[in-house]
């Protein structure tokens, strides 16, 4: 792998930062972030970072006012490193791919918590158009959606312990199956837009700069 996974300390810092700047509409932990990034990497088209990063915070109005440039840079670096690690596993090392589920400890017994990851995944699905997903792959998406939407909570509550464990075990393979499908579907390149030719107007050195700065051309964009 190119960089390898984040260590525990880095994941803790990332989660603390998500909580620090989080709100009721944002991603609040690394499990949900992991799910979001997995879906972004697995969808039918490439989602630009400026799109999913805004979605991560729950909208433009919620984008943090960072304490300083160093904090922002560290958050970006760790997020993209984690994203690259997910991409490596999905594409090159699928046998090493595992969703980053949470863990809840009750009376010294650990329980796997999948809701945050699945909610993050469905948040990523909502950023793209998955409507062309074929019928034979709908069960894979439903395996994630089962734990990733509030409307399915009553269904989950009715599952037997065995069925519940099976539903958890199905999430990772479902994510790999969905990624493999979209990866195999070539994205048709959009036709280049033919722009009309416009003859450039000659600007004198002492004329106002066409960029609108208010400066003379020679003191602005000439050089």
UniProtKB/TrEMBL annotation:
Pfam families: SEC-C (PF02810), UPF0149 (PF03695). InterPro entries: SEC_C_motif (IPR004027), YgfB-like (IPR011978), YgfB-like_sf (IPR036255). Coiled coil: none annotated. This is YecA family protein. It comes from Duffyella gerundensis.
